[in-house]
Amino acid sequence: MIYFDNAATSWPKPDKTWKAMEHFMRNIGANPGRSGHQQSIEAGRILLETRVALAEIFKVADPLRLVFTSNATEALNLAIHGILCPGDHVITSSMEHNSVMRPLRFLEMKGVELTIIECSPEGELDAHEIEKNIKHNTRLIILTHASNVVGTLLPVYEVGEIAERYNVTFCVDAAQTAGAYPIDVGTMKIDLLAFTGHKSLFGPQGTGGLYIREGIEKVLEPLTRGGTGSKSEFQEQPDFLPDKYESGTPNTVGIAGLGAGVRFILSQDINNIRTREEAFTHMLNKELKSIPGVKVYGCDDAQRQIAVVSFNITSLTPSQVAMELEETFHIMCRPGLHCAPAAHRTIGTFPQGTVRLSAGYFNTEKEIHYVPEAVSQIAARSRRGGLSHVQAR
Fold first, then answer.
1. 212 Cβ contact partners less than 8 Å away, ≥ 6 residues apart
2. pLDDT 10s digits, 275-313
3. What distance in Å separates the CA atoms of residue 162 and residue 106, rounded to the nearest whole number?
4. How confident is the model at residue 35, as a pLDDT?
5. Pick from 1, 2, 8: which is nearest to 334 by CA?
6. Quick one: which H or E segment has residue 277?
7. SS3 assignment for 145-158
8. 278 in Cβ contact with 364 (< 8 Å)
9. Predicted structure pTM score
10. How confident is the model at residue 98 (pLDDT cuts 50, 70, 90)?
11. Spatial distance between the Cα atoms of 88 and 134, rounded to a whole number of angstroms
12. Is residue 147 within 8 Å of 121, Cβ to Cβ?
């Protein structure tokens, strides 16, 4: 099996990830922050050490400003629902995932004004269009760091400068970039950074978080309220981080795995990971574009995108191509709309979608070259009128 679906979830994980989870389940197992015994204290230490590792990777000065959630979707909902009220104005792009679009569309029905900046067919955003649409009531700018459809990086640095200049809260969806691309929340002027643990951070599913810049917690309402293990004598929610946003028993076993995954990234150096994946992206773009009947989408520049490449083959649906890649060549990828219909409208592939190949750190150069060979065979067979006799190499 050749796995090219890392944009959905990374696989395989470093051995350290599952070993850390097994260690927790076998040797610790207790609830952090709810007891004073040794096991509970050790569980709490796991949470803190994971925050410290995440703070290092995102260049956050205070690890307690990193709040754990179950995934990036929950983190984005916390940011969106916690900031916006009826009468507020929010700006986003046409390349957003439904984890941004659906909460915004819901709030639009409740009286929040929504502006969607149209990106180019390559998925690129002009930061000046953001600035031109800022109003007196603009409360939030929210952007994906990189498209999960075509991999194009959005101009986070430039938009961060604009948001700071106009005193507008800036939220970044880093689901596709956290762990795969260097992120400095201070330099990028990011107020809220939503991330997931199960993709390029090499953690398990069910983990993620939100970075909250100092001062934002004064206006950011929590999604849930309840037991935190702190200030138990009060029936009101604590107002300090991270407890204000972390009610209920945490996914400590998952966070143990996430911490191990992040420490693996730190040991490899995220710049080395980025260089490796950039080279993979360049190879895929170049080789796929050379195949007759294949259309590749996006900016076609590995330096301006992450390791996500979308394509279609003339006269075949994405599902047909993906099925043939799996059944004949044992290549796992993802066809369709990728939970981002607005992005597909932007690049002109709605409602059919695309075939998405997403390489990861653990892929090999041999695998990278094998995939275009397989696509070439499928495209050639399609041109001759059928797929039934395509053979794996």
1. 65, 66, 67, 191, 192, 220, 241, 245
2. 999 999 999 999 999 999 999 999 999 999 999 999 999
3. 26
4. 85
5. 8
6. helix 270-289
7. CECCCCCEECCHHH
8. no
9. 0.96
10. very high
11. 11
12. no
Q: Which amino acid is at 283?
A: M
Spatial strand order of the sheet with 294-297 comes to 294-297, 308-313, 354-358, 334-336
* CA dist., res. 238 & res. 364, Å (int): 48
Q: How far, in Å, CA of 247 to CA of 225, rounded?
A: 6
Q: Any idea which residue has 């350290």 for tokens?
A: 16
Looking up tokens 């754990």 gives 68
Rounded percentage of the chain residues whose pLDDT exceeds 70? 98
Look-up: residue for tokens 């994405």? 318
Q: 3-class DSSP state for residue 80?
A: helix
Looking at residue 386, what is its pLDDT?
67
- Report the alpha-carbon distance of residue 4 to residue 366 in Å, rounded: 13
Spell out a b/e string for 299-338, using b for 16 or more CB atoms within 10 Å of the CB, else e: bbbbebbbbbbbbbbeebebebbbebbeebbebbbbbbbb
Classified as helix, coil or strand, 205 is coil
Residue 390 above 80 pLDDT?
no
Domains of the chain: 15-268 (3.40.640.10), 269-383 (3.90.1150.10)
Question: Which residue do the tokens 């279609």 mark?
Answer: 312
Dihedral (CA of 311, 314, 318, 324) sign: negative
Phi/psi for 257 (5° steps) reads -65, -40
- State the amino acid at position 224 in one-letter form: T
DSSP strand pairing (113-117 vs 89-93): parallel
**What does the CA dihedral 190, 196, 197, 200 come to, rounded to 10 degrees?**
-80
